[in-house]
Amino acid sequence: MERNWNCGDPQNRRDWAEATTETLRVLEGKWKIIILCQLFAAKETLRFSDLEKLIEGINQKMLIQQLKQLERDGIVQRTVYAQVPPRVEYQLTDDGHALGPSIQSLIEWAEMRRERAQPSSTVDGPKTTP
């Protein structure tokens, strides 16, 4: 969606700040973006145990907590199958899929910053910026 950045309008600035704050609240935390990236990469449902294996360093309690928050916010759908042992699967909702372009942009921005932060070696030594 193309945005008209009419920054002269104080109401626009307040609305944008509010929308950004709400978005960051939904995505805040060390693990939510990582969980979402795993669900995007899988392109299908993932079992709880799969997420647990794919996300290095997360403990079961934290994974459960983060998934519950994402489910509460309508980003992830949880499906429980009545079997023994219980099978629980997670997938992105339509709202979750709608985050794809934004997460892609964040990844590209992070990669750009990482590339700019790496000194390039030249014959005269490292490149410096004023």
Describe, in plain words, how this protein is organized in 3D:
With 130 residues, the protein is an alpha+beta fold. It has a domain of 87 residues: Arc Repressor Mutant, subunit A (Orthogonal Bundle), CATH 1.10.10.10. The protein contains six helices and five strands, in the order H-H-E-H-H-E-E-H-H-E-E. The strands form two sheets. Strands 1-3-2 form a three-stranded antiparallel sheet. A two-stranded antiparallel sheet has the order 4-5. A hairpin with a 2-residue loop joins strand 4 and strand 5.
Low-confidence stretches: none
Q: Approximately how much helix is present in the residues?
A: 55-70%
Name the CATH class of one domain: Mainly Alpha
Outline = globular
List keywords for this structure.
three-stranded antiparallel beta sheet; Arc Repressor Mutant, subunit A; 55% helix; single chain; 6 helices; alpha+beta; 14% strand; two-stranded antiparallel sheet; 130 residues
Offer a concise description of the structure.
With 130 residues, the protein is α+β, with helices and mostly antiparallel strands. It has a domain at 26-112: Arc Repressor Mutant, subunit A. Helices cover 55% and strands 14% of the residues.
